[in-house]
Amino acid sequence: MSTPYVMPDGFRLLPGKLSRSEQQALIEAVIAAQEKAPFWRPTMPRTGQPLSVKMTNFGMLGWVTDKIGGYRYEPCHPETGETWPTMPDALTGLWRELANYPVDAEACLVNWYAPDSKMGLHIDWDEEATDAAVVSISLGDKARFRLGGPKRGGKTASMVLSSGDVVVLGGAARRCYHGIDRIYPGTSTLLPPDYFPGGGRINLTMRRVKRVS
Ligand code: MD6
Ligand code: FE
Hints:
By secondary structure, the chain is mainly beta.
C-alpha cells in the first residue's frame, strides 16, 4: 500500500473565516487601489514568459517579477512607479490574529485569476523572514488548491478553496510546495464584472519580508 499524504505542521484552513460583507470590503479595497496600482501581468525570470495571473500589491513592499530582475520585493509599482497602496486595516487585523508573529506584514500580494488561470507548484521563498507564516485569503470563484511537501515530485493533496476561506502556511508548511490547479468559473457572485471582466478569483497573500531587527 502506498503511504498517504500527511498534512504538514503549520497548515491551517479556516473555511468561511470572512463574512460576505468582509469579503466585499476587501474587493472594494482592491478596486480603490487600481488608480495607484493597476493589475499588471508579470513575467518569469530569464524566459520573460508571462504569468497566467495578473498582480498588484498592498503595503510598504510588493512582490514583483520580470525577465531581467527576477523574483523580488519592491516599494513601487513596476508600471506606474507609485508606491503601493496602504495595507487595509482589515488585513493587518487578520495578520495579527493568525500569523503569531511579533511584527506586521509589509506586503500583501494580490493575484487575479481569470477562469483559465492557474499557478504551478511553488514555494514562497523570496522573503528574508521565512520564519513568518504566509496568510492567504480566497475571494470570488472557487479554486482547487494543491499542497505537497518540501520536495518537488512528492505526494500532494488537493482541496477546494471558496470565497472567504483563509489558509495559513506556517512552520513546516511554509516550506511546502503548493499551487492552484484550476478555477471553477461562475461559482461566486462576489467580483463585480465591470471591474473584473470575465470574473474569476482574487487571492490575497500577506507576507513579512524583512527580518525583525
Ligand atoms: C492561491 N496561494 O491561493 C495561491 N502561498 O491563489 C499561494 O500561493 C499561497 O495560499 C503561500 C501561502 C498560502 C498560499
Ligand atoms: Fe504561494
